[in-house]
UniProtKB/TrEMBL annotation:
Protein name: Uncharacterized protein
Organism: Lentinus tigrinus ALCF2SS1-6
Bias (Polar residues): 89-101
Annotated region described as Disordered, given as residue ranges: 1-20, 28-57, 78-106, 118-137, 146-185
Amino acid sequence: MPLFGKSETFSENPEVREVEKTVAKEARADQKNLDHAISDLSQADKTHSKSIKSAEKAAHALDKAVANEHKAAKALNNAAHKHEAAIANEQTAEKTVQIKNQHQDRLAQDLEQRKLHLESLRQRKEHNDQVRETKLSDIHAREAAVAGTRSTFSSGDRASIVGGDDTDTAAKTNTGAAGAGGAQA
């Protein structure tokens, strides 16, 4: 007769039969508990495997997040560098504008001085032109006066009044006027 299983035949003795039934009942309960423990162990093993996979997945996500963070830090660093370069370029451009404005102001002052100088030269030329015209008028008037007196005096008298020969005096007067005008122009 088997100790832990069903027996087809129980003993004829009622006390032994009771003990055999109790033992069989305990054996079935133990087997049931063992089956539950095996099932629980199998379930725990599956859960453990899932947690390992989940931990590996989390570690992979962490690695990916760290890589993304490094990528973002690199992009941030590049952006900061570009920003600093843009600030430096802006400052350089501002200095260039200031220098160009100062140069423009200096050129404007120089232009104004040149305009004033030109106006001064123009006024001086006009004055000198008037002086030359006056001299020429005086010379022409004297010459006309000399020509008018020629008809009343003899050539010798006129030479003594003017101080020399008519042609020589007229040539000196014209040369002097042209020379004075040419030298002053």
